[in-house]
Amino acid sequence: MTPIRQIPRLLRIAAVLVRYRLDDLVAGVHLFRPLLVFRPLLPRPHADVAAMPRGARLRSALIELGPIFVKFGQILSTRRDLLPADVADELAQLQDRVPPFPGDIARAAIESALGAPISKLFTRFEETPLASASIAQVHAASLTDAFGEHEVVVKVLRPGIRERVRADIDLLRALAQLAQRWHPAADKIRPHDIVSEIETTLENELDLQREGANASLLRRNFSDGKDMYVPRVYWDQTTQTVITLERVRGIAVDDLAALDAAGIDRIALAEKGVRLFYTQVFRDNFFHADAHPGNIWVDAERRTDPRIIALDFGIVGSLPERDQFWLAENFMALFDRDYRRIAELHLAAGWIPATTRLDELESAVRTVCEPYFTRPLSEISLGDVAAKLFSVARRYQLTLQPQLILLQKTLLNIEGVGRTLHPQIDIWAVARPVLAQILRKRYGLRNALKQIRRRLPEWTAAAPELPELIHAALKKAAAGELTSATQTAEVAQRERIAREQRRQLTVLSLGAVSLMVAALLYVFDTHGARFLHQSPAALVAALVGAVAFVVAWRRTR
Question: Closest by alpha carbon to 9, among 176, 149, 170?
Fold first, then answer.
């Protein structure tokens, strides 16, 4: 049950949703249905609101509800496997620019986190923030070390943000419970999983030391700084609530006028951005997953050979090595329009149940992809094709990890930036040679021999145990005790169902016995009219029986 203290917040949410003509969402959530009777008392929507598309109305409602809801919307926009395309596109436009909190509060928070006065930590600190967002805000500063004085930026969490996020997560969990209970497609939407995903992402963003580690690894992956520059982390001035980074300057990647004025080669920049994305994903298996234009700058000094400057490392992604391989092979098959290979790869990766008919899956893939290839390749979005493939595969019980969804969202962001810079860019022509080269290096014979050489000491150490392990496995197999992980999971599932059925049977039996006892006591009572007064045992039995039946009935629905 939703805690009473959350009711005022729920009332406000309901009012905002109705104000933006999202009352269909309100009606779809059981807790809000009674509130719809008060709709005539709520402010009427303006004509411009009524004319807005549903995605734009939802985006405006989230902005009005506050910065944490904006952040929820940003994270939810990555779940294109669950959202309609128009809604996901609108949510992806959310910008968490919020009013700053006072500089003296930021100063006090930094001093508390780093355990020293600002004057000892920095030679200069500006209380007026450079930028302010829903989670943290950024201040300019300078510090001195053995290598001299450096310009830096200090990012500090907003006061009370952890408590506010925790309260909002609790509220989302309550709503997820209602959605799980009442939404007809709850098994496909998986509201609890969505809330858990949002909670994990927010917890990661609230740990600025984790962000520093992300920045440090990305900087090491591009240590030459030729194509992408990542600011240095100053670890002595970094904790979980404060991070200090080298201050960088550049032009926002979507500021076309400024790029043109600086003489930046936009075509070269667009192609380099695409190549960098595939390099991060398939060479390093560590990619910047929040690559919207606000987090990508361009070095104004590099004109013919542009250099990208990356910012904000709170959200990054990586893939299990197995999924990384299957995904790369899927991309190559897509470049070759080999639909059967795509179907085979989905089955081999375990993303789709092995019982799926290969010819049916191949036909479905062809149906999705073939219309795209009637257009010039420069007009085809690889991200859109991947999204459509995921959508089709869901009909065949596709199971994907959140990181793959995050990758899809990042791919769409990168393609969007590339087409903003160079509308005629051929994403396929740029991406294919990069991916092919990475695959040759990563999965070629030379790398395979290198991996064998690296793991040889481990295998040598385990070799003496192999005969005993093989003997034990053969004995189990001969005795019929060897089961696969799938069989074990199926047995566990059957046991859970059986336990649940036993509990329900117990409750039903208790209810039946209680009602029978109540009936017998009533029959033997010669003064039936005084039943409630002279037969308290019968009353208690009847109440217990009624409650038991109600509980059992609800659990069996």
Answer: 170
How does pLDDT run across 311-368, given as a tens digit for each residue? 999 889 888 887 788 888 888 888 888 889 888 888 887 777 778 888 888 888 888 8
CA distance 416 to 292: 9
Same domain, 435 and 459: no
Lowest mean pLDDT among 140-154, 276-290, 425-439: 425-439
Domain boundary residue among 248, 278, 312? 248
Residues 66 and 102 grouped into a single domain: no
536: containing domain: 495-556
Same structural domain, 272 and 379: yes
- Choose from 6-10, 144-148, 351-355, 547-551 the range with maximum mean pLDDT: 144-148
Query: Do 270 and 300 lie in a common domain?
Result: yes
Give the integer Cα–Cα distance in Å for 252 and 229. 14
pLDDT at position 41 is: 58
In this structure, the strands spanning 296-298 and 308-310 are antiparallel
Q: Please, are residues 346 and 339 in contact by the beta-carbon 8 Å criterion?
A: no
Count the neighbouring beta carbons within 10 Å of the beta carbon of residue 340. 15
3-state secondary structure of 159: coil
When the pLDDT of each residue in the chain is averaged and rounded to a whole number, the result is: 77
Q: Can 290 be counted among the known catalytic residues? A: yes
Q: What is the C-alpha R_g of the chain? A: 30
- Indicate the DSSP class of residue 114: H
428 and 506 housed in the same domain: no
Residue 99 burial (C-beta neighbours within 10 Å; 0-12, 13-18, 19+): exposed
Q: Give the predicted TM-score (pTM) of the model.
A: 0.71
Which of 89, 168, 290, 312 is the catalytic position? 290
How many domains, the chain?
5
Asked if 381 and 467 sit in the same domain, the reply is no
Same structural domain, 124 and 236:
yes
